[in-house]
Structure formats: structure tokens, C-alpha cells
Amino acid sequence: MTYIMxxxxxxxxxxxxxxxxxxxxxxxxxxEKIGVNFQTVGYLEREEYNPSLDLAFRISxxxxxPIDLIFSTEPLRPLSQELLDRDRRKEE
Length: 92
Known about the structure:
This protein is 63% helix and 4% strand. It has 92 residues and is mainly alpha-helical.
């Protein structure tokens, strides 16, 4: 399998649904903020569609979080645990 083929099939996990719900933002509102159709937000949340790099940056900017706290190539742990781990690494 070539690198390009691998990248096309690699699953990207995300926290979009959780972040959207925490901020009480509808799919439609998020879609308008990031410039996509509201159905695209649903596909992203269900991890049926991998975002382009540009779209990932727009989502990151919308939520005010680094891309790596929103997207991952491995299943995501709770955000609170991610932040705790980051703080611990900074202290070391």
C-alpha cells in the first residue's frame, strides 16, 4: 500500500460533537461559522468524513483550541485528561 493510499483511508477521530454541545452550538450554526453545509458537520461528527487541513484549521479556530485537541488518528481520551497530561509534561 502506498503512502497516499494509506492517507486516504486513515480514520480521523474528533471531538466536534462534544465541543459543539458544550458550547450549545447547533450543527447549522457551526456549519455557517466554518463555511460548510450543516450535513458536513454531521458527517464529521460521525467520523464518516475526514476534514481537509484547511477545514480542520477553521474548526480549530472556531473552538479556540489546537487542532490536536480536536482531531487525532487514534481514539481520543476525555479532553480533561488530555489537558492534565499536557500540564504535567510542561512541568517536567
